[in-house]
Amino acid sequence: MKIALIGYGKMGKAIEQIAQQNGHEVVLRIDVNNIADFTAENLQKADVAIEFTRPETAFENLQKCLEAGTPVVVGTTGWLHRLEEAKDLCAQHQGALFYSSNYSIGVNVFFAVNRFLAQMMNGHKQYEVRMSETHHTQKLDAPSGTAITLAEGILEQLGRKTKWVNQSDAKADELSILSHRVDPAPGTHEVYYESAIDSIEIRHTAHSREGFASGAVQAAVWLVGKKGVFTMSDLLGF
Ligand SMILES: NC(=O)C1=CN([C@@H]2O[C@H](COP(=O)(O)OP(=O)(O)OC[C@H]3O[C@@H](n4cnc5c(N)ncnc54)[C@H](OP(=O)(O)O)[C@@H]3O)[C@@H](O)[C@H]2O)C=CC1
Ligand SMILES: O=C(O)C1=N[C@H](C(=O)O)C[C@H](O)C1
């Protein structure tokens, strides 16, 4: 499979390594220093594009891929407020778009466990819930996209929480997410339930970027030949 990498930073490089190990060819690498090469003609040389850049450029980048007719896997976080626009654009171009706040298989299992735990805790008001996420100091967005997905999973199930806040000082109906930035930290997410008599904590710790990169390559292989908007639950079936 021929891959175009949009964003050649930490994730772009990790994806290149995994893609090549799996017999794929990287035919285009776009970063800020060669943005002039980010053309429809060049994109059309690839079977699929994988986009890991910055929150403020992700939408424009996926738009360029859809306009070129190249299926695109988006890993960048912090742009999902424009998801409905992206879905419309994808339909308009009869294209293929895959997005996820986290491509790691382990995190997607963790998402399912988190929703199940929140569902069980809905009837047990003695438990207060809070979250934390820890990432490297170069991370631009807070809370992480993964933490937002976890929080959304809790809010869907737990009637006593109505919104998340990115601070420790939360009202009774708010879910607190604390963000920590330390090096090195590829990504750790924790959900805590605490009552006067006991505590339950669930945690996912990424030991490297390999899980994110390998999941993104899997998503790219899966996406080729499909039309529509997909995410990891479509690929994994849970
Ligand atoms: N979904 C997932 O599983 C994961 C998502 N992420 C997300 O992916 C994104 C990137 O992470 P990471 O690789 O660590 O970040 P990096 O900063 O290491 O890499 C991003 C690269 O994209 C470049 N870039 C910026 N704007 C553009 C543009 N318009 N076109 C092409 N390239 C551009 C940056 O250049 P410059 O630095 O000069 O701006 C940089 O080299 C983040 O949003 C992060 O949260 C990360 C890991 C896993
Ligand atoms: O920026 C990162 O590094 C990561 N970003 C994603 C996020 O915001 O959740 C995924 C992972 O945690 C690493």
UniProtKB/TrEMBL annotation:
EC number: 1.17.1.8
GO-annotated cellular components: cytosol
Gene Ontology biological process terms from the UniProt entry: diaminopimelate biosynthetic process; lysine biosynthetic process via diaminopimelate
Reactions the enzyme catalyzes: (S)-2,3,4,5-tetrahydrodipicolinate + NADP(+) + H2O = (2S,4S)-4-hydroxy-2,3,4,5-tetrahydrodipicolinate + NADPH + H(+); (S)-2,3,4,5-tetrahydrodipicolinate + NAD(+) + H2O = (2S,4S)-4-hydroxy-2,3,4,5-tetrahydrodipicolinate + NADH + H(+)
Residue ranges annotated for the Dihydrodipicolinate reductase C-terminal domain, each copy included: 106-236
Location of the Dihydrodipicolinate reductase N-terminal domain: 1-103
Subcellular location: Cytoplasm
Sequence positions that bind (S)-2,3,4,5-tetrahydrodipicolinate: H136, G145, T146
Pathway participation: Amino-acid biosynthesis; L-lysine biosynthesis via DAP pathway; (S)-tetrahydrodipicolinate from L-aspartate: step 4/4
Active site per the UniProt annotation: H135 (proton donor/acceptor), K139 (proton donor)
Keywords: Amino-acid biosynthesis, Cytoplasm, Diaminopimelate biosynthesis, Lysine biosynthesis, NAD, NADP, Oxidoreductase
Binding site for NAD(+): G75, T76, T77, S100, S101, N102, Y103
A single GO molecular function term of this UniProt record: NADP binding
Amino-acid positions noted as binding NADP(+) in the UniProt annotation, renumbered to this chain: R29
Subunit structure: Homotetramer.
UniProt xrefs under HAMAP family: DapB (MF_00102)
Function: Catalyzes the conversion of 4-hydroxy-tetrahydrodipicolinate (HTPA) to tetrahydrodipicolinate.
UniProt name for this protein: 4-hydroxy-tetrahydrodipicolinate reductase
